[in-house]
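Collaborator request, handled under Task 6.
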Amino acid sequence: MRLLRPSLCTALVVALASCSGGRDTNLRPAIVIETSLGKVEVELDPAAAPLTTENFLAYVDDSHFDGTAFHRVIPGFMVQGGGFAAESGMLIQKDTRTPIKNEAKSAGISNVRGTIAMARTNDPHSATAQFFINLTDNSAKLDPGGFTVDGYTAFGVVTTGIDIVDQIAAVQTKNRTLVSLAENGNQIASTGQDVPAEDVLIKSIRRIER
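C-alpha cells returned to the collaborator:
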C-alpha cells in the first residue's frame, strides 16, 4: 500500500513527487479550498485515481462546492464536507452527478493524515461530491481490507494549510438538522451528529494554475 506522508513531503517542497517515485508533478492538478477559517491547498493524483480525480474536478469546475459547509467534524478522525449548502442557518443537500466507481483498491493511496478521500454510503460505489480530509492515520479503518473490505478512495494530499484543517477539527459540534434529498426529489429532515455548531464554510474550491 503506497503511503502519502504530508509531513515528510512538504519538507521536501514537492510533496507528492517525493512520496511516489518522482512522477511529474505537472501532471498533478492542485486545488485551493478557501474556507471561512483559511485556505487549504491540495495536490491530487489522477494517475492513481483517475475516475475519482476527474469527478472531483468536474464539481470544482462547476463551482458546486461554493457555499457548502463542513457538516461532519470528528476530532482525531476526519472533517467532511462538500454536500450540504449553508442557507439561512440550515444545511441543505445539493444535487449531484451519478455516483462513481470506488478506486480505493487500484489507487493504493493510504488514508493517512492529510490525505483527501471520497465519502460514501455503505455502497462502496456511491461516492458523489462529499469528501473528507483525514486528521490522523486512518489506514486500519478506511483502507481496503481493513475495517471495510472495499475501503475509501484517497486521491490526494494537503500540501499547505494542514493547520487550518486542524482548526476545523477543533470547532464545537452538536446535533443539527440536515435536509437531505430523497430519490423522488422531496426533502427529508434528519438529525446529523458531529455537525459544527457554527457553520464552517467552504467559500470556494478552485484549481491552482501552475
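The cover message to the collaborator said: "The chain is about 20% helix and 35% strand. Confidence is low (pLDDT under 50) at residues 5-23. Please let us know whether this matches your experimental observations."
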